[in-house]
């Protein structure tokens, strides 16, 4: 049994947005395979790769593994 993440928790939203971005990546790759124009294929594939990078950033936020996303600590004097 999974525990629902509250709506006021940012992870609730990042998980939903990441899922939508993964669907968009799939759509772009499918379209790249269907069209015949090389420039369009390259554009769709480039867009898919860029969005995959955003998905990875969202995953790092959710997992708390991105150093830039960690709470800043006050340096000791």
From the alpha carbons, calculate the radius of gyration and give it in angstroms.
17 Å
Main β-sheet description: none
Instruction: Report the order of strands and helices.
Output: HH
Distance separating the two termini:
46 Å
Low-pLDDT sequence parts: none
Report the sheet-strand fraction.
under 5%
DSSP strand count = 0
How many helices? The count is: 2
**What is the SS-derived class?**
mainly alpha
Description:
The protein has 77 residues and is mainly alpha-helical. The protein has one domain. It has two helices and no strands. The chain has helices spanning 10-34, 38-63. The termini are far apart.
Structural features:
mainly alpha, about 80 residues
List the SSEs and their pairings.
Elements: H1 10-34, H2 38-63
Helix pairs in contact: 1-2
Q: Summed up, what is this model?
A:
The protein is built from 2 helices and no strands. It has 77 residues and is mostly helical. The longest helix is centred in the middle third of the chain and has 26 residues, at 38-63.
